[in-house]
Structures are given as C-alpha cells and as structure tokens.
Amino acid sequence: MNLALTVLHAATYRAASVPIATSDVRLALRVLYPFPRDQTDLRAYWESASNPRDRPWEGCHNSDSRIVSALLEKDCAVNAELR
Questions:
Q1: How many domains would you assign to the chain?
Q2: What pTM value is reported for the model?
Q3: Nearest-5° angle of CA 54, CA 57, CA 63?
C-alpha cells in the first residue's frame, strides 16, 4: 500500500509538462481500490490526473491528501512521509 501511495505522491509533484495519468498511476490506484470505504477520492485523483494542467500546482494535491486521510481513518498503516 505504501508503495502505491509513494507512486501517487511522486506523480502529484510532476512538472506541468509531464502527464500524471500514466500506467504506473493507474496501477497504484487499482492497488489502493479495496482499502478506502469510499472510492470517490481515487476516482477524483484519476480525473484530476487526466485533465491538462497549465501550472504544476494544478492537479492531484487535494485528492492525494484525501486518499491518505481516508486510509488513516480506516486504521491503515501509512508511512509518516506520506501523511
């Protein structure tokens, strides 16, 4: 789970010219799919990743934070650097 979160976190901070919606991100979201009670944040991350960005700060930051929060609420172990 932490490896999947690391992939999402790294993708969130990619440059605006680098796409976020890649196969590694899709696989990471699929790995995390069974864990949160509600998959809305996972879907929101993919939708944000699929949209073109003009600036690096536009993108998946909020969805990334909400995914981690949802996992922590379900008492899943999340590495400290990803919180």
A1: 1
A2: 0.90
A3: 115
